[in-house]
TrEMBL record:
<keyword id="KW-0238">DNA-binding</keyword>
<keyword id="KW-0804">Transcription</keyword>
<feature type="domain" description="HTH luxR-type">
    <location>
        <begin position="1"/>
        <end position="62"/>
    </location>
</feature>
<dbReference type="InterPro" id="IPR016032">
    <property type="entry name" value="Sig_transdc_resp-reg_C-effctor"/>
</dbReference>
<keyword id="KW-0805">Transcription regulation</keyword>
<feature type="domain" description="HTH luxR-type">
    <location>
        <begin position="73"/>
        <end position="138"/>
    </location>
</feature>
<dbReference type="InterPro" id="IPR000792">
    <property type="entry name" value="Tscrpt_reg_LuxR_C"/>
</dbReference>
<dbReference type="GO" id="GO:0003677">
    <property type="term" value="F:DNA binding"/>
</dbReference>
<dbReference type="GO" id="GO:0006355">
    <property type="term" value="P:regulation of DNA-templated transcription"/>
</dbReference>
<dbReference type="Pfam" id="PF00196">
    <property type="entry name" value="GerE"/>
</dbReference>
<dbReference type="InterPro" id="IPR036388">
    <property type="entry name" value="WH-like_DNA-bd_sf"/>
</dbReference>
<protein>
    <submittedName>
        <fullName>Transcriptional regulatory protein RcsA</fullName>
    </submittedName>
</protein>
């Protein structure tokens, strides 16, 4: 496994919190270009090809040290439909919208609409926040089982 620099570890943890490149740049007081360069290095080191894979990797790599971003209402997953829960679960696996659609036999546009609905119901602001929520729900379910 490739070794990450201290800065790459910081960026990975912030990605796992649902922050975008500009938010990370502001927090670390570096340029967005530098953040993107570090993200590129991380994806190369771990053979990640999509943003979804990077976010999933960052959540699994950084968890459980990181907390759920404050913009997520974790009490809302019970209000999700069966399909929305299914899509939320697949997000944590790092699948793209097209991959999820292919696996579920629905259109990518339908997946996108479900993701919009999930964001509204959970008040999550980013895909990373939804993926973190999914991972935390799965952990909670496993602990109860």
């Amino acid at each position: 496994m490739s070794r990450l620099t201290k800065r790459e570890l910081q960026i990975l943890a912030l990605i796992a919190q649902g922050k975008n490149s500009y938010q990370i740049a502001g927090e670390l007081e570096i340029t967005a270009f530098t953040v993107r360069k570090h993200r590129s290095n991380i994806t190369r080191k771990f053979n990640l090809h999509t943003t979804a894979q990077l976010v999933s990797f960052s959540i699994n790599y950084s968890s459980p040290q990181i907390a759920i971003p404050s913009d997520i209402d974790i009490t809302q997953p019970d209000s999700l439909s069966k399909r929305e829960k299914q899509i939320l679960h697949t997000l944590s696996l790092g699948l793209t919208g097209k991959e999820i659609a292919r696996n579920l036999g629905i259109s990518p546009r339908t997946v996108g609409k479900h993701i919009e609905n999930i964001k509204l119901k959970t008040q999550a602001q980013s895909l990373a926040a939804l993926m973190k929520l999914s991972v935390d729900i799965a952990r909670k379910d496993n602990e109860q089982a």
